């Protein structure tokens, strides 16, 4: 019987260790909204650490906005690149085989020169572009939006 209790004790310790590790990893959460806003004010747009709300609170509503179901290339460092930001038929340099899909929310701030892409309300992609490039991108969005149905339409921030 002592053999069984010894094994049981080891199993319980192992399970507790796994749960503790899960809690530690799980506690590495998003910064508070205030911390996120400070990052945005400092123009330190840290991927996976900033929400749409923080950006809108600091920079205001995006002058150019788009939302669509999007495919993303998952890179070896687990960053993502929207398929729309890669030439048709091409793959980004360094991409292996990972893909992800979801509702991509695109904020374009021509006055600041930023294209920000959010997935599940987290900043997952950022790109510095000239104002003309951002306006051209918005024209593409407007053209694509002509073919959306009411079911495809998302809510604006």
User: How would the global form be characterised?
Assistant: globular
The H-and-E topology, N to C, reads as HHHEEEEEH
Number of domains: 1
**Low-pLDDT residue intervals, each spanning 5 or more residues:** 14-27
Number of separate strands: 5
Distance between the termini: 63 Å
The percentage of residues in β strands lies in: 25-35%
As a percent range, the share of helical residues equals: 25-40%
**Tally of alpha and pi helices:** 4
Rg calc: 21 Å
User: In this structure, how is the largest beta sheet organized?
Assistant: 5 strands, antiparallel
Decide which structural class fits the backbone: alpha+beta
Strand order of the largest sheet: 2-1-3-4-5
What descriptive keywords fit this protein?
37% helix, 157 residues, five-stranded antiparallel sheet, alpha+beta
């Amino acid at each position: 019987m002592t053999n069984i209790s010894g094994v049981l004790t080891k199993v319980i310790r192992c399970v507790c260790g796994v749960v503790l590790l899960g809690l530690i990893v799980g506690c590495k959460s998003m910064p508070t909204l205030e911390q996120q806003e400070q990052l945005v004010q400092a123009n330190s747009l840290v991927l996976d650490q900033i929400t749409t709300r923080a950006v809108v609170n600091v920079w205001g509503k995006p002058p150019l906005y788009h939302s669509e179901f999007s495919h993303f290339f998952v890179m070896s460092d687990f960053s993502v690149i929207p398929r729309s930001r890669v030439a048709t038929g091409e793959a980004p340099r360094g991409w292996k085989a990972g893909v992800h899909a979801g509702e991509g929310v695109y904020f374009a701030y021509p006055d600041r020169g930023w294209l920000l892409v959010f997935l599940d309300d987290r900043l997952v992609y950022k790109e510095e572009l000239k104002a003309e490039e951002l306006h051209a991108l918005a024209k593409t969005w407007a053209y694509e939006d002509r073919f959306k149905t009411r079911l495809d339409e998302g809510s604006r921030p």
